[in-house]
Amino acid sequence: MTPEEEELAQEAARLFSGRVDFLLSAPQLQFLPDADFPEVAFCGRSNVGKSSLLNALTGRRSIARTSVTPGRTQELNFFEVGEPTQFRLVDMPGYGFAKAPVKVVEKWRALVRTYLRGRPVLKRTLVLIDSRHGIKPVDRDMMTMLDEAAVGYRLVLTKADKIKASELEKVRIEVEAEARKHPAAYPVIHVTSSEKKFGIDELRAAVLADIRS
After folding, report:
1. 100: which of 76, 104, 121, 211 fits an S-S bond (Cβ 3.0–4.6 Å)?
2. Residues 142, 110: Cα–Cα separation, whole Å
3. What is the pLDDT of residues 104-144, one digit of tens each?
């Protein structure tokens, strides 16, 4: 990292290691908090490691709730960062749940699509991709939804410690190639491991840079 990037990473680490509090869950749009702070949203397939990544970024063990039932949480969960509050992290409902009823999927799409299109303080969305599986059709659907909503997003590979380095690089190249097909996708792919804390500092700095953009 350059000296400027290193300084940003250190500042981001201080912020994320400070106050991070759960604010509220919004099952419907009328329950959203006032749009008075910048927001960065996290989304991904069920079991992609979203909760683990949020916990790693904030240095907590259970800031984000995990569920044994994929697709169970169908709410937007808001967390405030900083004292006083500097920005919010938004944990979006997981997608790609095969066993969910059609009405649940339709409700999810309506909530997420409307949030993405109508949230003026949303600075960036992080789309999490499991390194072991690469991009799936449901991920492309999510990326297309973000493209249509004109919401810029970063692609984040999770669980990078679970596959061989050669396989990881192959997946990274494939994801990078897919990103080039999407107008709202950020060109740099983030490679992370919540367990090994790999790539966490860089992702914190990227989030802070997005907040200030």
Report:
1. 104
2. 13
3. 778 888 888 899 998 999 999 999 999 999 999 999 999 99
CA nearest to 49, candidates 135, 171, 199, 158:
158
In the block, residue with structure tokens 């991709």:
129
What six digits make up the tokens of 127? 């789309």
Q: Which residues contact 91 (CB under 8 A, 6 or more apart)?
A: 41, 42, 50, 51, 54, 64, 76, 77, 78, 79
**Token pair of 104 as six digits:** 């649940």
Residue 140 amino acid letter: R
Q: Tokens at residue 61, please?
A: 């063990």
Does the pTM of the predicted model rise above 0.90? yes
CATH T-level assignment (fold) for domain 3-211: Rossmann fold (3.40.50)
Question: Quick count: other Cβ atoms within 10 Å of Cβ 75?
Answer: 16
Give the residue extent of every domain in the chain: 3-211
Structure tokens at 211: 């907040």
For 26-84, the pLDDT digits (tens) are 988 899 999 999 999 999 998 899 989 999 999 887 776 544 344 445 789 999 999 99
Contact 103, 53 (CB under 8 A): no
DSSP element (H, E) containing 54: helix 50-58
Cα–chain-centroid distance for residue 131? 15
Q: What is the pLDDT of residue 67?
A: 42
The SS3 assignment for 30 reads helix
Dihedral-angle region of residue 123 (phi above 0 means left; psi in -120 to 50 means alpha; beta otherwise): alpha
